[in-house]
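Extended Data, panel c. Modelled sequence:
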Amino acid sequence: MARNELRPVVRMRSTAGTGHTYVTRKNRRNDPDRLILRKYDPIARSHQTYREDR
């Protein structure tokens, strides 16, 4: 799969302060702002808010 600037790889960091991260890709045309997703944090053992880390 070719890497391009339209769909960059972004790192999602937990806002719970555990330091856990997810890696995903996003579409810059549809989501020009930072992504905010609710995902499972295995360290906190609950769903937390994950924000795009730059």
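Residues 6 and 46 are 32 Å apart (CA to CA). This feature is highlighted in the accompanying rendering.
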